[in-house]
Design brief:
Layout (H helix, E strand, L loop, with lengths): L13 E4 L3 H10 L7 E5 L16 E5 L16 H7 L3 H7 L3 E3 H14 L3 E3 L2 E8 L2 E8 L2 E7 L1 E4 L3 E3 L14 E3 L3 H4 L8 E5 L3 H13 L6 E5 L20 H9 L2 H10 L1 H4 L4 H14 L10 E4 L2 E8 L5 E7 L5 E6 L1 E4 L3 E3 L37 E4 L4 H4 L9 H13 L39
Parallel strand pairs: 1-2, 1-9, 2-5, 9-20, 11-18, 12-13, 12-18, 13-14
Antiparallel strand pairs: 3-4, 6-7, 7-8, 10-19, 15-16, 16-17
Helix pairs in contact: 1-12, 6-10
Length: 458
Amino acid sequence: MDTPYQARPEPYDLLGVGIGPFNLSLAALADRVAGLRALFCDGKPEFRWHPGLLVEGARMQVPFLADLVSLVDPTNPWSFLNYLRDQDRLFAFYFAERFQLPRREYDHYCRWAAERLPSCRFGTEVTAIRWAGGCFTATLRSAGGEHQVRARNVVLGVGTDPVLPEAFDRLADHPAVFHSGRYLDRRHGLASARDITVLGSGQSGAEVFLDLLRSRAGDGTRLRWLTRTRALAPMEYSKLGLEHFTPDYTRYFHTLPGPVRDRLVAEQWQLHKAASAETLAEIHDQLYERTIGRPIGAADAEITPGTEVTAALPGPCGGLELRCLHRDSGARRVVRTDAVVLATGYRAGRPAALEPLAELIDWDERGRYRVDLDHRVATRPAVTGGLYVQNAELHTHGVGTPDLGLGAHRAAVILNALTGRTVHRLPARTAWTSFGPALLPAQAAFPEEWNRAPVAGR
């Protein structure tokens, strides 16, 4: 383990705040950089990755090479393949012939790395970050009390917060309404419910609905899946479509004007918010099986896209009342249900530890970080150290921001930037697609006829 905080009079080169997969990737890549002093802190007692969604049978949506290090440094000892070797599972994995891992195995792999990386400290919360004396000073709180450490650079990897729709404000504390991120913890509380509604068309909503179909088969429970999207379209998974998750697309997206970027993120929901085709197929299989010899309507299951919940209230006779609007037809109806699982996504927030720094950060017009291509946050000139973010730059870096496949590359970009040298060599080109317009040679001129008004009839 690293030496105690008190024995570190010199500042750390890097302080990581939060230890999710992205900062864990940074810790793994930094571990091999000679002379780099790094510390990563998280208030949780151990690494946990979306524990409420580690449903039996759920799989990752990215290949196993999207681990902590392999797409930058496949020889790194913190790779998934080395984890398999350590666990004596290489042959089992080889014969399984699975490119996508079970979610539970990815969680276990990350915990394996987090428990062994000497720079990671769990049970240690960063409560405040200040800038003074040419360094960041962070206050850490642990079972041993409060400590202060200094760092030349800080990387925020605190994750995202669950989104609860405004329509559910009055039910925020209702025991039968909860976010899908707590699904496994709260699933037992659904035992007495005879009508359950799942809200949200992404992977989490699909996995929760599928799990309910499997676990509540034949017990008379009515299951309902409502989504605002007009269709349960699958995640874009074509080979060229996936090139939106390359560093090439990130660089292109970063050059676009802010309003264009915001519009694109909303339009590209099928790239990063939809459910996998495999999960949707399994849902169809479950519905098919439960209606053999019976009418389709006897499935005790409803799937209604294009539907927005405009208000959610306690029911007059118990249960819950959802007031719904079908967006295409304009039809309104009231749904009465016993429980609601909100698979309504996550959003990057501002960690409380940043408040002492807030006035030194150059926020954009919507209160978000301004982030350069190296993932460094724009700050006032007085702050000469680097403040970096991971998974809080969707608005500046595009749909690849939350994607695990870009995690190692982003960590390497940050390491190269904060060390001021090429710690990791990164490829100049990663996609066949040219996302911007092909530029003419500098000496070429537009033909004169391009500037003429179009001829009528042509």
